[in-house]
Write a structure and sequence with these properties.
heterodimer; A: 4-stranded antiparallel sheet; B: 112 residues; mainly beta; 5-stranded antiparallel sheet
Chain lengths: 112, 112
């Protein structure tokens, strides 16, 4: 499955709660990314990290937070400040931004 | 900021016909332009990529062309087959920003 794993596959959250999506890779990749996929809007970049202990905001970072304490892990927290969190979230990793990115199988988050 | 535009959003062709998807990018420092295919319910996977020092690249029935002056690149699929039906995404690296920016996707339907 490409060595990058997201969990859980489906996640339900009540309004006002924070939730953390897991992303783990064993490909020894330095770069990791989080994207949000909505119908008709493609893959929008939330956060990215080029190296451990460093990350930058993407185009739609508001209401999200990340950490990169280990090279293998890049968890995404969807906070209560995210106004429209229901979406499909994809994590990816690559050697760097100019090489093939491998995607996880995604997490579908539903706010109920 | 960096932006990648993709057209058309949907494309329907008859089996055996060719399909062309076009993308434009905004960052003149971009050097890497991959194309991903996402089948229904699956993760995006790289199908072909091109770098800025090359104008065209082919792999069997798929080819990509790049015009750096005009800042646009295109995916060409010849002799389309029903299994080519999927969503296709173009992307560009963010030059100095280390991002990987995706277009909004094209839903390709190949009619048997």
């Amino acid at each position: 499955d490409g060595g990058i794993t997201q969990s859980p596959k489906y996640l339900f959250r009540k309004e006002g709660q924070n939730v953390t999506l897991s992303c783990e890779q064993n490909l020894n990749h330095d770069a990791m990314y989080w994207y949000r996929q909505d119908p008709g809007q493609g893959l929008r970049l939330i956060y990215y990290s080029q190296i451990v202990n460093d990350f930058q905001k993407g185009d739609i970072a508001e209401g999200y937070s990340v950490s990169r304490e280990k090279k293998e892990s890049f968890p995404l927290t969807v906070t209560s400040a995210q106004k429209n969190p229901t979406a499909f979230y994809l994590c990816a990793s690559s050697i760097d931004q100019s090489t093939e990115a491998f995607f996880g199988q995604g997490t579908r988050l539903t706010v109920v | 900021g960096e932006n990648v535009e993709q057209h058309p959003s949907t494309l329907s062709v008859q089996e055996g016909d060719s399909a062309v998807i076009k993308c434009t990018y905004s960052d003149s420092a971009s050097n890497y332009f991959p194309w991903y295919k996402q089948e229904l319910g699956k993760r995006p996977q790289l199908i072909i990529d091109i770098r800025s020092n090359v104008g065209e690249k082919k792999d069997q029935r798929i080819a990509v062309t790049l015009n750096k002056t005009a800042k646009h690149f295109s995916l060409h699929i010849t002799e389309t087959q029903p299994e080519d039906s999927a969503v296709y995404f173009c992307a560009a690296d963010g030059g100095a920003t280390n991002k990987l920016i995706f277009g909004t996707g094209t839903l390709l339907a190949v009619q048997p």
